[in-house]
Amino acid sequence: MTPPHKGASATPSHEGATRHGAAAQAGAASAGAAPDRAAPDRAAEGAAAHSGAARAGGAPESAVVSGGAAPQLSSGREHERKDSRDSKNGAGQKASAAGERRIPFPTVDEITRHCLDDDEPETVHVEIHLPALPDPDRLRAAFAEAMRRHPRILLRQVPTRWWRPRYEWVLTAEPERDPVAFPGGTLEEARERALAECPPLDASPPFRAEVIEHGDGCVLLVTINHTALDGPACLRVVATAAELYGGADNSPAPPPVRTLAEQRGADVESAPRGQIWMRPARVAADTRHPGTPGNGMLIADLPVPARPPRAPGEPAPYTVNDQLLVATWLMVARWNSAHEEPVRPVRITMPVDDRPRTADMPIGNGTRLVEVTFGAQERELYGVLTAPGAPGASGREVIERLLRSTAARTRALKAADRPQLGFSGDLLTTPLLPVGLRAAGIRTLRRAAGPWASTTLLSNIGRVPYPLDFGDAGRARAVWFSAPARVPRGLSVTTVSTGGRLQLALRWSHARLDDSAGRRLGTLFAEALAATSYVPSRSDESNGEPS
After folding, report:
1. pLDDT of 531 higher than 90
2. What is the 3-state secondary structure (H, E, C) of 227-259?
3. Share of the chain above pLDDT 70, in %
4. CB of 274 within 8 A of CB of 345?
5. What is the average pLDDT across 241-270?
6. Is residue 398 within 8 Å of residue 381, measured between CB atoms?
7. Distance from C-alpha of 342 to C-alpha of 420, rounded to nearest angstrom
8. How far is residue 149's CA from residue 238's CA, in Å, rounded to a whole number?
9. Which candidate, 44, 108, 120, 76, places its Cα nearest to that of 452?
10. What residues does 481 pair with on adjacent strands?
11. Of 275, 298, 386, 540, which residue is the least packed, with the fewest Cβ within 10 Å?
């Protein structure tokens, strides 16, 4: 098994060092949701789940990095007070200029905006590793034109009073600030900024793109304010900028074709169901610095787990995404078993993105959340699969069975037609009450429904659909994404594949895990993922030999 801090090489390279921010007040227990029992909570926590991707060229990368609390005000209540002051001082006049187009906050944006927290900034981090340094002026010009071609990214928030019916975005004709910077410093420092410093919402666009010299090339590190935008949407804009900069075709690869048999497999009624009325497991807390704000993050490069071969036209028994779900369940089960936690269902929130990756891809927070529950059926397997050491033949058979049942669940969940955060999300953001009262109610629901929040988030971007070819700066050698990891979940798992490798980002809340615990959790994930890899039997090998 290959632990993440060793990558896939016998001579790993460590880029980052563990660093904790100064101790602060204990992180607030904001919450997420169970699919049906805690439907209001699903909506209240949902926006923290949209993100995603990547790996560096050459030797595999591995690093642990920590980010502290946001230096700027970002909590919901502080933003409301700031909006009120801005309105009194006339700061909203620019937003009301003639000809500007205003857009009410969609459901995901509004709920995220209600629940912002200074201790855990709502950032999405994307890093793209390139073999050479791009020209600053050409890169800025390419990004400026890319934003004009995707005008939905050029937005800022209109200052709002508490009695207004909605928050609003205003679309700007041009960028109000240059998001591209060449700040110098190390990649570790840039990653720390990505975890701790959220791009503001008072000037468009709500992201920044820093170019950091690293090794024999550079890293384009993009930090996104998740209230306005998710990772896949921002990556679409970056792909357009790459095409404008280098002149190469950056059209997305065609999506995989699903067979009729796979589509028929998406049967909601026949899919196994979890126990939605039980409180889900929580990743056992393990920290020597309780109350420390901010997030920690592990970056690792892993092999893509093998899957069984299939004949042309036949459905795959399971996908890499199903293997990642089972690996996440194994990681949490083994971690909690080692910490002597009671056995509870593991509930994993999984974003599903149905948007096209073409130039007309909708920009914003566009994924919908589903929850995969490992409950009663897995309880009887718990002892076998949490035993120390590599699984034997019987253990592999159990994992294979688990993979196939998980595939049935995910096909059913992806086929279900439901709003992004469930029907409760739309209900909670209906403007029947002033936005300030809705904000207070949603924050209260988050706290009350915290015990039923999902165990963790798994965001699998899959293969990067774009070449990300920057001409003389080269084609992307690796891409990493990381999603926010707010309590009570306190952990997110984000993966993407490039060049036949799997790029993993584990991100955790310091209120639940310290960086040493995060590194050990990453080792468990690597071992669990390896356990899901298909191993051909002798009969398979003999069938593959020519007669």
Report:
1. yes
2. CCCCHHHHHHHHHHHHHHHHCCCCCCCCCCCCC
3. 75
4. yes
5. 68
6. yes
7. 32
8. 11
9. 44
10. 126
11. 540
